[in-house]
């Protein structure tokens, strides 16, 4: 039994005994598989199955079985949906890929702050329709910021762990 807050990728060998992952009030039952689980504060639970099979037991008694390339998205109240997923987008992080896929500015900011351990301040207004797509492997923060800002017409300044992004528009 593993209790999880946050995100983790599991590769579990097939054994006689079940392997359980508990995230919040949801249990994921595993027997020989690889999958990603993410549940952060005030977000839905995401379970993305790469290989094998898992069964998700919700607190309300619902049970959902996932097959490879399926992802379960479960809201706090127990409402859920199954979808496909982009493997690089969901589990690229474990191989040091920083992936943005039509990400809103708030998502880019949050991911950069968590990935690099920095604080980002913004000067100017960011268009609510602004999105960014890009993939970086083992890249320095300055190169990622350069890519984001050059394509968006913004500038950045780095002062230790404090980043300022300025949108002159």
Structure description:
This protein has 2 domains: 2-88, Jelly Rolls; 96-166, Phage tail protein beta-alpha-beta fold. By secondary structure, it is α+β, with helices and mostly antiparallel strands. The termini are far apart. The protein has helices at 87-91, 105-116, 141-152; strands at residues 2-3, 6-12, 19-23, 26-30, 33-39, 45-51, 54-57, 63-66, 71-74, 80-83, 97-104, 119-123, 131-137, 155-159, 162-166. It is 17% helix and 47% strand. The protein has a 5-stranded mixed β-sheet with strand order 1-3-4-7-8, with no helix packed on it. Strands 2-5-6-9-10 form a 5-stranded antiparallel β-sheet. A 3-stranded mixed β-sheet has the order 12-15-14, with helices on one face.
List descriptors.
47% strand; 3 helices; alpha+beta; FecR; Jelly Rolls; Ferrdict_sens_TM; 15 strands; Phage tail protein beta-alpha-beta fold; single chain; 2 domains; 169 residues; 5-stranded antiparallel sheet; FecR_C
